[in-house]
Amino acid sequence: MNIVQVYKQFPSQNDCIAHLEKVRWHNKPVCPYCKSTKVSSYKQENRHHCNNCNTSFSVTVGTIFHKTKVDLQKWFVAISQVLNAKKGISARQLARDIEVNKDTAWYMAMRIRRAMNEYGDLLEGIIEVDETYIGGKPRKGTINNPDKTGKQNKRGRGTKKIPVVGLAQRGGRVHAKVIKGLNHKSLSRIIKGHIKPETSKVFTDEFKGYCKVAGFVEHKTVDHQKEYVNGEVHTNTVESFWALLKRGIVGQYHKISADHLPKYIHEFCYRHNHRKNDFVFDLTISRALGV
Ligand SMILES: [Zn+2]
């Protein structure tokens, strides 16, 4: 879906609501508060009244669109823009695309990212695992960002980078997440939790944090001091994912706080994992509705 297709398929707010009602309820409204189906509908206001708990509601209650003042058409365009933006989309760009202010665009994108958070099936086959460091506050004391004394700090000073671990099934899905404390316990736990060990092989570099992996799954390493590829053993897939994630984060999202980083990671994983899915727009709408 692109902007033109969204506007063609959903020419008005009512079309968007009709679509959401179809996806969420198959056109038979259910009260979001008490789950009753004894509902009277007021079509003109796009609202429904629950005759069981005596509340009125619309299809957006309890979804990412709840209480929004922005037209649903703009939301639909925003979803398509986020899904299409391989390297991410800045709040500023999204604001221009849908003609809302930057804060609104930022808030909408954060809600859309919420719908992009999925656990997914366990990975299997060849799985490359690697860790990286992302983000951190801009360095103080550089030419562009001098500290109060005007002194320049050495490279790396003043940054607090966040460790992230990624698992990429070759030719398949990725799973990446922020990790607390990069050590063999946390790494083994994450790998165990996301793969089918009996049908998998895990490839990593020689980082000592992977020392216990061979205890629960076939494990091969490539020594990055000497070589990057050793037959089928390499971590190029997960490293390409890091490259894209880092370009996106540096290019679009200049300052990401540690609190928000996981949401941006979900966004990049989701886009990667659904890169061949023609129905990703519909999928995202249903996830946005919590269906
Ligand atoms: Zn009710």
Describe this protein's structure.
By secondary structure, the protein is of the alpha/beta class. It has 2 domains: about 120 residues, no CATH class; about 140 residues, Nucleotidyltransferase, domain 5. Helix content is about 35%, strand content about 20%. It contains 9 helices and 8 strands. Strands 6-5-4-7-8 form a 5-stranded mixed β-sheet, sandwiched between helices. It has a 3-stranded antiparallel β-sheet with strand order 1-2-3, with no helix packed on it. The two termini are about 20 Å apart. Zinc ion binds next to loops.
Short description:
It is built from 9 helices and 8 strands. The chain has helices at 3-9, 13-25, 72-84, 91-98, 102-115, 184-194, 236-251, 261-273, 280-288, and strands at residues 39-42, 47-50, 56-57, 123-134, 162-169, 174-178, 195-205, 218-222. The longest helix has 16 residues, at 236-251.
When the domains are counted, the total is 2
Structural class: alpha/beta
Present as ligands are: zinc ion
Assign the CATH topology of the largest domain: Nucleotidyltransferase, domain 5
Largest sheet: 5 strands, mixed
Task: Give the SSE map.
Elements: H1 3-9, H2 13-25, E1 39-42, E2 47-50, E3 56-57, H3 72-84, H4 91-98, H5 102-115, E4 123-134, E5 162-169, E6 174-178, H6 184-194, E7 195-205, E8 218-222, H7 236-251, H8 261-273, H9 280-288
Parallel strand pairs: 4-7, 7-8
Antiparallel strand pairs: 1-2, 2-3, 4-5, 5-6
Helix pairs in contact: 3-5, 3-9, 4-5, 5-9, 7-8
The structure holds zinc ion.
Residues 31, 33-34, 36, 50, 52-53, 55 line the site of zinc ion.
